Amino acid sequence: MNDIKWWKNSVVYQVYPKSFNDSNNDGIGDIAGITEKLGYLKKLGVDVIWLNPIYVSPQVDNGYDISNYRKIDPRLGSDEEFETLLNSAHEMGIKIILDLVVNHTSSEHPWFKDALKSKDSKYHNYYIWKDGKPDETPNNWGSSFGGSTWDYVDKLGQYYLHLFAKEQPDLNWENPNVRQDVYDIMKFWLNRGIDGFRMDVISLISKDPKYPDGPLVQNRKLGSYYAGAANGPKVHDYLQEMNREVLSKYDIMTVGETPHTSSKDGVLYADASRKELNMVFHFDHMHLDYGKYGKYSDKRFKLVDLKRVLSEWQNAMYEHDGWNSLYWSNHDQARPVTRFGDDDGKYRVESAKMLGTILHMQQGTPFIFEGEELGMTNAKYQSIDDYTDIETFNTYHRFIDQYKLPKDFTMRSVYLKSRDNARTPMPWSDKANAGFSTVNPWIKLNPNYKEINVENVLSDKNSVFYYYQKLIKLRHELPIITTGKYELLDKDNSKTYCYLRKGSEGTMFVAGNFATDSQVVNIPELSGSGKKLISNYDSPDVVKSGDIILPPYGTVVYLFE
Ligand code: TEU
Ligand code: CA
């Protein structure tokens, strides 16, 4: 696979630094804590680590509000500790990519503080302002976390735009100085030796200059900003410029987080010939269980829809010179076994392995979110006061106070969808504080940490951990997993997900059962006999085309050579 870019046969592991490992026992995970656990990640076999934001931040949105892009947040560590992490990782053959959050800064960033002083400030035009009166917002946009996207500054007689919290003012990408400053920040980190970026909400950086009102969706009183902010008129110009000035000069990987992006829009970012990004995170599979009120809902996804959207992205990227990212979860999402599998104990381990297989055997770069390799479940805290996340908190109050929705529905939705489900501290053992820290962590542990923890998976050869280790190893050994053409089978089957990967080395057959009862699946006519590559149950080592039985949440992969 010499001519294939390294990030195409890599597996990325996402570390949420605050929740990974606390080295100095102040309750907050930190950079030195990650260095301590590199051996664990090496054992799993991952190639790249993506770190959520580690820069100086007031932490209104857990680091997605940055006030100094060039310094490490002292709560997470020092510049030297980051240097040690980077060097140690590199020595072990593991790359590190950082989060680049440049749709907005923190309101505590010196640029914004200066911009607030007067319209003549050098930095005023670094942000997006509209003249107006105190109670006439420039348009009807509602921010991601609730309330208007516009905040009024009396002294200036102007509103500034913030698609997220009011402490996260949006940068004005129309201003070439903003872009140059962003490129300088990127070069600063790349020159320090990092291996790429995950770019936060990069699909939102170019706004429609008309700032049109948005449609009222999900029962909200305010309009959606997506039509006027997602995939805006200049986003591709900006990324092509960024690529020319920065990205093309380094051997790195880039993944853009692109809310509100269809596969058609997706290829515009990720088609290599367009020289923008390597891949994007789309949200089509994350939206399948959105309900009447949006993300926070008790709706369950439908497998037929899941197959449709994932297949659409597989095909779109293949038809162009594009590349997919593959993920079941991240720090904003529920735990995959709860959301797409079965978390009640009976099939937790089986469904975690099945989900891993269905994802990792597709074409693209898989991302494992910390704890996924343990088969972690959602947290389900007792009370809303146990939740810490701004999105969860604001949604709860919108549902109860504004929509007058029943508390049990609201809490059920929080259990299923709160971002905190992903942010519970990594359970390293069944000891006090799950071995994460010697003191109470900044956010509560998942109550099931005595059962689901690293010590347990490492001592059980049938654990999700060792299964993931094998999935990663297969990717490294078999080029067909990187290059084979994806072909969905039996698209209308609502219980099983089966597909082929066709390449010069043969054909791979991949099957997963999403049901709690056994299912018959058919292996189509393929030459020769199939050799088993992996399975989560006792399936035959060699098989011919024809019907096979998959037990509840069973999964199997055969290679026909
Ligand atoms: O998230 C972007 C985003 O679109 C989120 O609104 C996401 O869809 C939502 O959280 C799902 O519930 C990114 C980061 O990943 C998130 O943690 C930040 O809060 C957000 O940007 C602002 O920087
Ligand atoms: Ca700490």
What do you see in this structure?
This protein folds into five domains: 1-101 and 325-330 and 344-354 and 363-378 and 422-480, Glycosidases (TIM Barrel), CATH 3.20.20; 110-161, Alpha-Beta Complex (Oligo-1,6-glucosidase, domain 2), CATH 3.90.400; 190-323, no CATH class; 380-417, no CATH class; 484-560, Immunoglobulin-like (Sandwich), CATH 2.60.40.1180. With 561 residues, it is an alpha/beta fold. The chain contains 16 helices and 21 strands. It has helices spanning 31-36, 38-44, 79-91, 110-117, 176-191, 226-229, 235-245, 263-270, 303-319, 336-340, 348-360, 390-402, 407-417, 454-458, 464-477, 479-483; strands at residues 12-15, 48-51, 55-56, 68-72, 95-100, 129-131, 150-153, 158-161, 196-199, 253-257, 279-281, 325-327, 365-369, 485-489, 496-503, 506-513, 519-523, 530-535, 542-543, 546-550, 555-560. The chain starts with 11 loop residues before the first strand and ends with a strand. Helix 8 runs parallel beside helix 9 (303-319) and helix 11 runs parallel beside helix 15. Helices cover 28% and strands 17% of the residues. An eight-stranded parallel beta sheet has the order 11-10-9-5-2-1-13-12, covered by helices on one side. The protein binds 1-O-alpha-D-glucopyranosyl-D-fructose and calcium ion. Calcium ion (CA) binds next to loops.
